Amino acid sequence: MFNRTISFSMLTLIGISSYAQSPQTYKGAYANGYAEYNYIENDKLIKLWNGRFTYKDTMEVAGRGECDVLINGAYKDDQKSAIWVATLKGLDGNSLETSTGPMKDGMKIGLWTHRLTMNDKDIKVASASFTRDRFTSKFEYKYNPVEASIGEYQELNVVGSFDSKGMLDGEWTTSYVGKDGVRMQELARYQHGVLAFRVVRELETEIEKDRFDNEAFVTDFWSKMKLPDSNAVINDEKYGVIKEMCHQESLVPLMNSWNDLRTVVVSKIHGSSIPTTMITKGEVQSNKYLVCEQKIVSWKETPKGMLEWQEEQRILEEYQSNITNADKALEEKNLEEALRLYRLSSAIKKDEDYPREQIPMLEQMIKDRATKNRLLGSVGEKKSMLDKAQKKLMDDETFMKKQDKLYGAYDLTYSARLRSMKNDHSKTITFIEKENTELISIPELEAYEASLDDLVQFQNKVSLLIGKDTKELEKKLKKLDDAGEIEKIFSMPP
Fold this sequence. Notes:
It is built from 12 helices and 18 strands. It is of the alpha+beta class.
């Protein structure tokens, strides 16, 4: 029984699912007209248009009276797809308007064309190419109204092109006859959305009304751009680009006529110049196509440049802080910390000379300090050993009584040599005693250590004679009372 229930439920669900996915057709009223379209209902019973679409209507169009409307297209997954064709035909037979082009995912792609004819005369002929609702490649618009008094222009012709990213590019020519009947021409040259050159003039008189020429700079800029969203350095200044809305007042309404859905409704008064936009369902509504110009600005004014500038400021602040602390550490004789901070500063800003120059100086100072400390320790140890050994020798009764001549000669010579050493190294000794060792140079310490070594060697040489037969030596020393002569005797080999 349980299994039967499960099976029945599953079959029921399968049946519902199959029903939900089966194509259905609607025929009947839609807005103010009649529509036929295919659709399916998903598992949430939401109607998704799929397949062919047809719309028919009769509406009043300003300046043309009543017109039959016929729109044919297709949908895929509830979005406009495939080729769309719209026709508005005047009931009096005097006007015909057609628009056609492909769509995908609710966006215009490829080449779209539009034509309005009245009394066998072309009033409007336009074409534009799209990539996902952005203008690309060539753009053309020709307008020649029936009555010169209607609208802003008696005549309007625009020819230009966009690059692959939807930016105004290359030469754009706009020629028009205004309400005053004067024929004007505007020639503009863009480079990837950046206006490089523009001149406005009266065609008949060739009188210039406006001129702008920055072509050399713009060309130089793009030639030095390494990568998109990058920068170019010109005359030691770094520049980048920011995207902007279209500034061409004459172009904005022409571009909007292809893509702007905000003013388009299905009603008895049709205000759109491109009839396919009458059916807004399934079409992506966006004005990103109007972002088709760029402006060269200081690199810092670009989003990426601002981030880089902020990072540079952070690095600069970190660098300055490290340098300040390094200088302070050096002043306080904290050499290791100063060296660490100078090295860190140099790594942060590799092109700065100051920390790079300080590093070898600090390394040498640390090395010299270590050498000096070693020498100070050595001379201190040797001085202490010398004093202890001297006291021991002078207190040795055997040396003092049994080798009294040797004892007296040694004492005389040692005292003389000690006085000489103290005289030769008086400054060094004084600084050591006062613990003002910074004023002592390494060569001075090395010289003092060498003198101590000589005195220690002399002391050791005499110490080896204690307790030995030194009668012959003492006979020679007995006759001498000059330390220099005595030292010569001691210097002779045994």
